[in-house]
């Protein structure tokens, strides 16, 4: 069982759908929703491509391509570093990969 919200799977599947429309891709083995499930299972549970392929009844190469395509879709949708910095709130910090982490500590300007 995948412990992610249904809304997340739907959102990712709509992003995949938009990418497929952009590429004019007419046919795929898995629908957008199942591709989103496959990729999220890999990212969340660290499922191997062999396990994903067996679970979704596709080849390992197809599982790899679906995960790779979904990661590209998510990466293109994610904000860049400048956008992330512009959206910073009080007490937020940016990690190199663009992740925002709220904290409850405030640094002092005094040296140790």
UniProtKB/TrEMBL annotation:
The organism's place on the tree of life at top rank: Bacteria
A Pfam family hit: HTH_Tnp_4
Domain named Transposase Helix-turn-helix: residues: 29-75
Name of the protein: Transposase Helix-turn-helix domain-containing protein
Top-level taxonomy: Bacteria, Bacillati, Actinomycetota, Actinomycetes, Kitasatosporales
């Amino acid at each position: 069982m995948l412990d992610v919200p249904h809304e997340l799977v739907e959102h990712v599947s709509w992003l995949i759908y938009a990418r497929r429309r952009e590429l004019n891709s007419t046919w795929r083995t898995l629908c957008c929703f199942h591709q989103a499930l496959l990729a999220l299972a890999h990212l969340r549970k660290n499922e191997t491509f062999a396990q994903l392929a067996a679970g979704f009844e596709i080849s390992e190469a197809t599982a790899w391509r679906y995960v790779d395509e979904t990661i590209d879709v998510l990466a293109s949708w994610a904000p860049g570093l400048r956008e992330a910095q512009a959206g910073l709130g009080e007490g937020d910090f940016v990690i190199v990969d663009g992740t925002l982490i709220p904290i409850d500590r405030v640094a002092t300007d005094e040296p140790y």
